[in-house]
């Protein structure tokens, strides 16, 4: 379904939002996060090597995170990230990935990313959320994430805007499984016909939402996509008009 510019889903009864790269993004450079974690656990690694390791780990995860059950439990999420961190550190240092130094540092980096100080809202988020509040439209976050997401969103002062936060690792269901979206609808007390989901990935967000009968919008801030069979916005503030808020 491609939404018209106004009166997208009459009547609109609820909005579902992805978290990462839709509402929030990293604030602290990954190398800095790793350097702080290394100091905390007493592992001596040059800052430049840490930055290179984090970039390598990110590239590794980019090729894997969208396949397999990585997001279905906290253990799986942690394994995805810490494994990538430890492997990258081992490669750059010419040691085994099971080296306890890299295991300890990888765990510390993962824990650091659970703190809101390393995250920030996109600048278009507050205006959209305030418009939804004024319109009396309930909002749920639906995200593939580890157990730290709720605390991050609350510490970023989003609590009073959100009616529910549905996190894959908490419920054992991940995108694009339609059950994750259906759970958010149930928590909001609405049906699919009155809902819109907004996210930044086509398969997980658009295909997943549609499988649950929900109209989908892709947020594409970097204008990477062309000619998709869904509504695409480049700024969340576009939704204020799109949804006739």
Please outline the helices and strands:
Layout: E1 14-17, E2 24-26, H1 30-41, H2 47-62, H3 74-93, H4 100-112, E3 119-121, H5 125-135, E4 139-143, H6 149-155, E5 164-167, H7 168-171, H8 178-188, E6 195-199, H9 202-211, E7 215-219, E8 231-233, H10 238-242
Parallel strand pairs: 1-4, 1-6, 4-5, 6-7, 7-8
Antiparallel strand pairs: 2-3
Helix pairs in contact: 1-2, 1-4, 2-3, 3-4
What is the H/E string? EEHHHHEHEHEHHEHEEH
> Could you name the ranges where pLDDT drops below 50 across 5 or more consecutive residues?
4-9
The CATH class label of the largest domain is Alpha Beta
Major sheet: 6 strands, parallel
CATH architecture title of the largest domain: 3-Layer(aba) Sandwich
Determine the number of helices (DSSP H or I, runs of at least 4 residues). Answer: 10
Average of pLDDT: 93
In short:
By secondary structure, the chain is an alpha/beta fold.
Structure, described:
With 245 residues, the chain is an alpha/beta fold. It folds into two domains: 14-23 and 122-242, Rossmann fold (3-Layer(aba) Sandwich), CATH 3.40.50.1000; 27-117. It is 44% helix and 13% strand. A six-stranded parallel sheet has the order 5-4-1-6-7-8. A two-stranded antiparallel ribbon has the order 2-3. β4 (139-143), α6 and β5 (164-167) form a beta-alpha-beta unit. The model is unreliable at 4-9 (pLDDT under 50).
């Amino acid at each position: 379904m491609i939404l018209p510019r106004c009166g997208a889903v009459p009547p609109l009864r609820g909005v579902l939002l992805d978290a990462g790269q839709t509402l929030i993004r990293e604030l602290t450079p990954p190398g800095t996060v790793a350097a702080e974690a290394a100091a905390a656990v007493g592992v001596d690694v040059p800052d430049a090597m840490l930055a290179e390791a984090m970039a390598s780990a990110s590239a590794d995860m980019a090729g894997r995170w969208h396949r397999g059950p990585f997001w279905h439990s906290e253990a799986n999420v942690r394994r995805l990230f810490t494994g990538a961190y430890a492997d990258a550190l081992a490669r750059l240092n010419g040691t085994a990935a099971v080296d306890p130094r890299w295991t300890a540092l990888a765990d510390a980096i993962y824990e650091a990313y659970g703190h809101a100080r390393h995250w920030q809202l996109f600048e278009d988020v507050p205006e959209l959320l305030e418009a939804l509040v004024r319109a009396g439209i309930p909002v749920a976050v639906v995200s593939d994430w580890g157990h730290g997401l709720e605390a991050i969103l609350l510490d970023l002062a989003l609590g009073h805007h959100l009616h529910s936060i549905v996190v894959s690792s908490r419920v054992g269901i991940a995108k694009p499984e339609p059950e994750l979206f259906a759970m958010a609808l149930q928590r909001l007390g609405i049906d699919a016909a009155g809902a819109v989901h907004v996210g930044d990935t086509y398969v997980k967000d658009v295909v997943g939402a549609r499988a649950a009968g929900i109209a989908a919008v892709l947020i594409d801030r970097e204008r990477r996509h062309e000619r998709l069979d869904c509504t695409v916005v480049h700024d969340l503030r576009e939704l204020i008009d799109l949804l006739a808020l």
